[in-house]
Structure formats: C-alpha cells, structure tokens
Amino acid sequence: MVSRAHDLPYQRADRVIPADPQMVDASHFAPANRRRPSGPAMRTFLNIADKWQLSESDRLMVLGLPGRSTYFGWVSKARTNQDLSLPVDTLLRISAILGVHKSLTVLFGSDHEALEWLRGPHDAPTFGGQPPMALLINGTQDGIMIVRRYLDAFRGGTFAAPDADDRDAAPYADDDIVIA
After folding, report:
1. 107 pLDDT exceeds 70?
2. Which of 29, 55, 108, 126 has a CB 3.0–4.6 Å from the CB of 114, allowing a cystine?
3. Which residue has the higher pLDDT, 152 or 20?
4. Are residues 121 and 73 in contact, defined by beta-carbon separation less than 8 angstroms?
5. 155 CB burial (10 A radius; 0-12, 13-18, 19+)
6. pLDDT computed for residue 125 by the predictor
C-alpha cells in the first residue's frame, strides 16, 4: 500500500494526532488561484521597486532570479492587465516585500527616511553592519523574511537592539511614573 504524506500521523510526546488533509489545501496553489493575485501583486511590486530605486538586477534577485525574458513577460502582462500566473515562490517573495513596505510606512514619516533606513548600515545583530537592503536583494527568500520579521517585531515593540539613544538616556525617577 502506498501512503501519502497527508495520511501519516503527526506524533507528539503525549499523543498521536492524525494528519488533517485540509491543513494545507493544495488547490490554493493551482494556477487558476494564483492568477487572481498575480497581476496586482506584480504591479504593486513594481511600484515599490521604483520607490526603492531598485535596479533591474536587484528586482530579479528579489523575485528569485527568473530569466530576464520571463521577468519582462510578467511586467508586460501585469501592466496591460493580461492573465498572469506567477509561481508560488514569487508570490511569497512579493508578499514579504509588501510586508516590509507596510512596516516601513508605519515606522517612518516619509519615503525618504524609509529608504535611508533600508540603504544605511546597521549595528543590530540581525544586519551585522550591513544595510537591510543587502538582505532584501541577496536572492534568498530568507533574506527578505529576516528584514520583514525584524520590522514587524520592531513595529510591534517586542524587539529593538539598544542604540546610542538608549545608552545615553537618563534612568526614570519615581516621579516619572504616573498611575492614573
């Protein structure tokens, strides 16, 4: 008997949980279902890439190195509202870029400040002195996701590496704490 991955149980220390074939519905990845978001996703990516002043080679790296003719085919179809079905990997990359852009919009008062942050070197351990843009254009999905997670955490207030402002700040006094 041939078993399929969704027939295999998931084992936990205290019990066996039968695999649920509906956990991930493969039909979500079918070309027909990828067609609906592909055009708008590509057009939005192109607008963000223009705003971030990404070169053609940078855009190709962010999208996972599709062939140039493939990339320009996608661009042409997206701009003329023709049917377009991007690969799942490309849609995931664009989704992560949208998340980075959203966080930058929330965190910074202007596009100029956001671009300075993306292109400037950072001492945060995540970046190791490199600009976040280096991770975005390194060709890996992981690079994009690292920047997205960093910004999401920073935006949510759950993480921020100490910087000069933190080290030079005066400690709070009892009078600074007000309970209303």
Report:
1. yes
2. 108
3. 152
4. no
5. middle
6. 86
11 bridge partner residues: 16
Least confident of 71-80, 97-106, 156-165, 168-177: 156-165
Q: What is the DSSP letter of 10?
A: E
**Which of 62 and 24 is assigned the larger pLDDT?**
62
Residue 61 · residue 45 · CB < 8 Å: no
- Which phi and psi (to 5°) does residue 10 adopt? -95, 125
Q: Do the Cβ atoms of 103 and 132 come closer than 8 Å? A: no
Tokens representing 115 are: 């671009």
CA neighbor of 38 nearest in space, from 112, 90, 96, 3? 90
For residue 1, is pLDDT > 50?
no
What is the Cα–Cα distance from 88 to 93, expressed in whole angstroms? Answer: 9
Place of tokens 């002043």: 53
Closest CA to 97 of 125, 121, 82, 118: 118
**Three-class secondary structure of residue 17 per DSSP:** strand
Helix (H) or strand (E) holding 160: none
Give the number of residues written for the chain: 180
